[in-house]
Amino acid sequence: MYNAAIEAASLDELRNLQSERLRTLVKRLYKDVPFYKQQFDANGIHPSDIKGIEDIHRLPFTKKNDLRDNYPFGMFAKPMDEVLRIHASSGTTGKPTVVGYTQNDLDVFDEVVARSLVCAGARAGMKLHNAYGYGLFTGGLGMHGGATKLGMAVIPVSGGMTERQLTILQDFKPEVMCCTPSYAQTLSEECAKRGIDTEKLAVQYAILGAEPWTEAIREQVEAGLHVTATNIYGLSEIIGPGVSQEDFEEKGTGSYVWEDHFFPEIVDKDTGEALPYGEEGVLVFTTLTKEALPLIRYWTNDICSIQYDNNAKRSHIKMSSIKGRADDMLIIRGVNLFHTQVEEVIHQFDFLSPNYRLIVERAGTMDTVTVEVETAKGADYQNTVFGEKLKQKIKATIGLSMAIDLKAPDSIPRSQGGKLSRILDKR
Ligand code: ADP
Questions:
Q1: Under CATH, to which class is 330-425 assigned?
Q2: Which of 112, 246, 302 to mutate to test the pocket of ligand 1 (most atoms within 8 A of CB)?
């Protein structure tokens, strides 16, 4: 079993542990990774300058390009004979970045995923229907290892082949499932289409992540599959899924960051300046314990805020749900726009379903956005009043005029198992 004591550690205990781990980390990186030695030297920093976690802001950021420039293994801090596994990011935004794990890294990975599973409601003895992709993507194998550590029976379904997923959900009776939120939407809709009574399924908990999602999707999935759905967050560069996880009894209050291993900061997306708790900016992580590929102040590009929650079960800091990636942010006529903002507005109308996408086009010098959204079952998609209401609400809350294209149910492409892009940029 994994050790849950750290989840209740006091802030002082956490800071001491983080400080000790950071000091060791910077010394090791300076010695073992030429990229970091050069970065530290260029910034006039010596490892002895870093006395504790409070000095972290003195260290330079590491960006995705640094990993790409050192592709594939140039930033590894351990020789290949100590590396036991290699993964790569999904490559959602360009060339994949390659990551490696020592035995200790795999143990930490299992540990944080096991913690996350418990946080989501899973327990030893339950079965996990794991519909994250197996392969180079960290999702499948990452969840697998943590569930095994916890003592669950893992069903390694992987993504896709929806028909088979439904058979397994009905026949193997897993209590817990995990996949992307958009694929959970697909599964829920396919159950409805086939008249599968989801109340009769054994599945109680759905652990959803790997792409941004909002309460709109939570409601659809929870109602459609009769589950409690929580958020799991992670990225391959830091470890994979299980960097943070929402508690099943504290839904909507953010996801715990396992900060004994991954130290989070929020910084201004333009200046890199550290921002106070509660303010939104770019999430940055330092891997305090990673061996094969430790990263200092890794710029995730994901936009959120972090804050301690004094009423929570655990002492670790929580991060808000991700609004989007900084590089996925649309700038439309000078207004910054994430698709999740539109998702939140759609959620306010019963006559709409959370199946939508944004079509971005350029007419002359003007960028335009069309919201394609399906009406809820039973609502008339030809009713122009619906579109007008959505248009006005978007204008009032986001400040942009968007064209609305109401669609009949089932007419917008669905996730087939992986990450779903909700933006079609035709510019
Ligand atoms: P890629 O960057 O190629 O998609 P990964 O598969 O490592 O590589 O995915 C990590 C990224 O996925 C994160 O940086 C983030 O943008 C997104 N992501 C992961 N989990 C979540 C989540 N729960 N909510 C929002 N976005 C998420």
A1: alpha beta
A2: 302
Mutate which of 67, 109, 208, 233 for ligand 1 pocket (most atoms within 8 A of beta carbon): 233
Residues 365-417: tens digit of each pLDDT = 899 999 999 999 899 999 999 999 999 999 999 999 999 999 999 999 999 99
In order, the DSSP letters of 370-405 are EEEEEEPTTS-TT-HHHHHHHHHHHHHHH----EEE
Task: Return the H-helix or E-strand segment holding 186.
Answer: helix 181-193
Domain residue limits, the chain: 1-326, 330-425
Q: Which residues line ligand 1 (CB under 6 A)?
A: 89-93, 137, 209-212, 231-236, 300, 302, 322, 325
Of all atoms in ligand 1, which is nearest to the CA of residue 325?
Answer: 16
Q: What contacts 398, CB < 8 A, 6 or more positions away? A: 335, 337, 341, 342, 345
Looking at domain 1-326, what is its CATH homologous superfamily?
ANL, N-terminal domain (3.40.50.12780)
Nearest residue to 196 (alpha-carbon basis) of 154, 226, 229, 217 = 226
**Among positive and negative, which fits the CA dihedral 243, 113, 2, 102?**
negative
CA 51 – ligand 1 centroid, Å: 32
Name the token pair of 295. Answer: 């990263």
Nearest atom, ligand 1, residue 97 CA: 3
For atom 13 of ligand 1, which residue has the closest CA? 235
Bridge partners for 16 per DSSP: none
- Express each pLDDT in 191-216 by its tens digit: 999 999 999 999 999 999 999 999 99
Contact 42, 34 (CB under 8 A): no
